[in-house]
């Protein structure tokens, strides 16, 4: 596999009209993708997609936005889904104090419950963090087990990057790296070892320059790879292959038979 988009939402309705064509294009270009669950419904959809297509994998979990809809039964269902071979992580889970779509205490409880689930099923985590860094770090540090996973759409500075790396986590780097205002993020990425980074799109959102403003898709991670390559003074091919290797190692990716 040439490149891996470690964070896509291929079940999103933005892809309803041309999902099959898009996935065929990924195969042709040898781009793998992890399609990320954000609710019970989208986790089921992610699993269905990953079971049907070689080069696609799924994660299951509840985004902090929907934390108020999560009960014990939901977590049990995630545990059942997590047993499928195509499921490679629990996520995206975490906290979001920017939009506050679920009460913060509920977000924290559901995040902790899903961290416990990840430990129980022995899968890495995909973290969502927006304006909630202090509480997120406190909850992560509260747990006894070592952390294995990725801080999805990392947007912090060099010191926060160091903190997350110190916890054993990888950084997910996507389209925002190409946005002019994100100088502190570029400095953080420049200082992060290449073997601790993953490429991601978060498609259909966060489209990189030069397509910013349009729908994002997994193939556009090449623009993120180019931006990292420029910062580090290495070739985009080197960035693509090393980050693909990182994703394979972290998530234990093996091609599903179709
Ligand atoms: Zn996402």
Report what the structure shows.
The chain is an alpha/beta fold. Helices cover 41% and strands 16% of the residues. It is built from 9 helices and 8 strands. The two termini are 16 Å apart. It binds zinc ion.
How much strand content do the residues show? 15-25%
- Placed side by side, the strands forming the largest sheet appear as 1-2-3-4-5-6-7-8
Number of helices, counting only DSSP H or I runs of 4 residues or more: 9
Bound molecules: zinc ion
How confident overall, as mean pLDDT? 96
Radius of gyration: 17 Å
Q: CA-to-CA gap between the ends?
A: 16 Å
Q: What class would the helix/strand composition place it in?
A: alpha/beta
The succession of helices and strands, N to C, reads: EHEHEHEHEHEHEHEHH
Task: Write a compact overview of the structure shown.
With about 260 residues, the chain is α/β, with parallel strands linked by helices.
Task: Name some characteristics of this structure.
8 strands; globular; eight-stranded parallel sheet; binds zinc ion; alpha/beta; single chain; 258 residues
Question: How do the helices and strands line up, and which of them pair or pack?
Answer:
Layout: E1 3-8, H1 19-28, E2 31-35, H2 40-52, E3 56-60, H3 72-82, E4 87-96, H4 104-121, E5 125-130, H5 133-142, E6 149-151, H6 158-166, E7 170-173, H7 183-190, E8 197-199, H8 221-232, H9 236-251
Parallel strand pairs: 1-2, 2-3, 3-4, 4-5, 5-6, 6-7, 7-8
Helix pairs in contact: 2-3, 3-4, 4-5, 6-7, 8-9
The structure holds zinc ion.
Zinc ion binds next to loops.
